[in-house]
Amino acid sequence: MGAEQLPLAGMPQRLYTCTPSRLNSWLDCPRRYRMTYLDRPSPPKGPPWAHNSLGSSVHNALAAWWRLPRAERTPETAGRLLVRGWLTEGFRDAEQSARYRERAREMVERYVARLDPDDEPVGVERTVAARTDRIAVSGRIDRLDDRGSELVVVDYKTGRHVLTADDARGSLALALYALAASRVLRRPCRRVELHHLPSGEVAVWEHTDESLGRHLRRAEQIAAEAAAADEAYRTRLKDAVPRPRPGEGGAAVRHEPFDEHFPPRPGNLCSWCDFLKHCPEGQQAATPKEPWAALPDA
User: Fold this and answer.
1) What is the pTM of this model?
2) Are 279 and 31 contacting, i.e. CB atoms less than 8 angstroms apart?
3) Which helix (H) or strand (E) holds 201?
4) What single DSSP character describes residue 250?
5) What is the pLDDT of residues 45-72, one digit of tens each?
6) Fewer Cβ close by (within 10 Å): the C or N end of the chain?
7) Other CB atoms within 10 A of residue 118 CB
8) β pairing state of 16-18 and 135-147
9) What residue spans of 153-255 are helical by DSSP H?
10) pLDDT cut 90: percent of the chain above it
């Protein structure tokens, strides 16, 4: 037999190890997926996004608030945690950063004022994982609540768009988190919630075993496509001839040998892609956005 080994009959299938983000990245654009997860070194990204800095700052402050002793869990403390951990990347200038820091501080204090500090979550930034005979999926839940006999997945959102029950229902990530939490903690977990801090709205969906099963089968289908492309990448990488990226002194970007398996999906989302400058099709489909363009009042 040659260097390329054929799988033996009856051997177990290799599990595809993934996160919900990896699966969604494949759905959005296989080329971006390849640049993110397979190309080494990964092509240089564009500038950081201000809305990501805002979102991370809020998430970090809320996680730190729940880890405080009970007596210190006040709205004012949450605001101080936000200010102390504020991330400045992506903002136009110091004035814009300071303005959004104040808005985020008020947002966090308003949200925390509605919480019961005695209602201890089961987990904060809790990592959960689950395996099937096809995938090994893991992810980190913003907050996992204990509500009566069931667990509830809570996901914080800070974007400018108010979310609906349809967003909660259709979220592959939330469904996989619920499945994984149920398996890890051996308790029912069907309710998922999107907490939109700018508006104070909460989008809720109550899954059934059937709807969670549909999401899991969808995840396995996505994983099967991505795994096949991954294997093709590994097989063909040694034979691929890289071509230089314009203006990068001979560094290579791999397109043609892999586009059969990692085709671009140009569209409006290309404006927000970290790798837009490396993708001619994306550049034709969308205009680059300023790093602060997705801030709530932009």
Assistant:
1) 0.88
2) yes
3) strand 201-206
4) T
5) 999 999 999 999 999 999 999 999 999 9
6) N
7) 7
8) parallel
9) 165-170, 172-185, 209-237
10) 84
Query: Which amino acid appears at position 24 of this protein?
Result: N
Three-state DSSP state, 203 = strand
The structure tokens listed for 162 are: 């108010």
What is the residue whose two structure tokens read 């210190």?
72
d(C-alpha 224, C-alpha 15), whole Å? 10
Tokens of 36: 């993110």
CB 229 within 8 A of CB 239: no
For the chain, give the number of residues. 298
User: Is the pLDDT assigned to residue 9 strictly greater than 60?
Assistant: no
Contact 118, 66 (CB under 8 A): no
What is the rounded distance in angstroms from the CA atom of residue 49 to the CA atom of residue 258?
28
Look-up of token digits 């294997």: 231
Closest to 266 (Cα-Cα) out of 42, 20, 30, 23: 30
State how far the Cα of 271 lies from the Cα of 145, in Å rounded to an integer.
Answer: 36
- Alpha-carbon gap, residue 172 to 183, rounded angstroms: 17
DSSP string for 85-124: T---TT-SSHHHHHHHHHHHHHHHHHHHTTS-TTS--SEE
Distance from C-alpha of 251 to C-alpha of 266, rounded to nearest angstrom: 24
53 in Cβ contact with 90 (< 8 Å):
yes
Question: Residue 161 is encoded by which pair of tokens?
Answer: 């768009």
Residue 34: closest CA among 260, 281, 245, 292 = 260
- CA 220 to chain CA mean position, Å: 18
Tokens of 275: 């790798």
182 with 215: CB under 8 angstroms?
no
